[in-house]
Amino acid sequence: MSKINETIRKRRSVYPLQYINKPIPKEILLELLLNANHAPTHRLTEPWRFKIFTGEGKSKLGNFLADKYIEITPEFSHSKSEKIRTNPIKAGAVIAIIMHRDPAERVPEWEEIASVSCAVENIWIALEQYGLGGYWSSPLLCKFLGEHVNLQENEKCIGLFYLGYCEPSDRIILKKPIEEKIEWIE
Known about the structure:
By secondary structure, the protein is of the alpha+beta class. It is built from 5 helices and 4 strands; from the N terminus they run H-H-E-H-H-E-H-E-E. The chain has a 4-stranded antiparallel beta sheet with strand order 1-2-4-3. Helix 2 packs across helix 5 and helix 3 packs antiparallel against helix 4.
């Protein structure tokens, strides 16, 4: 199996609880984001934007998210609010995934979201070479991120990507056979 096929097939979610407490150098984060910048995009709208939380920024993000969860949840769970507060701290970095809608709306919104998703997949696939793992979280709280960071009118957060150093894995995620998901039309 080729290296790229193996890398794609080993891609997996690695959660903050599994991270090794170690900051990720800015140079590596920039390399990952450069990979994201090479995602496909219809009409070259390049709708991906990223807000990168490191250092104290992770604590501030965790506090904001936990406080917002408590504010909007009448019968909130203390353990869930604590998990929301500490997950960013456990990560080496957190990337807010922002969809920057083409102001002229030259393509449907779903295509913009698909392009942003491709950008994130480029990051995800590249993580292994640095000993990193990642997890895309899309909590309801994302829609409030503009209260914490500056978002333009045509932007919205579609997820938080947690990443951190982790133990390597040779595990290939078993999926249902591809033959169950395709139809040949000849």
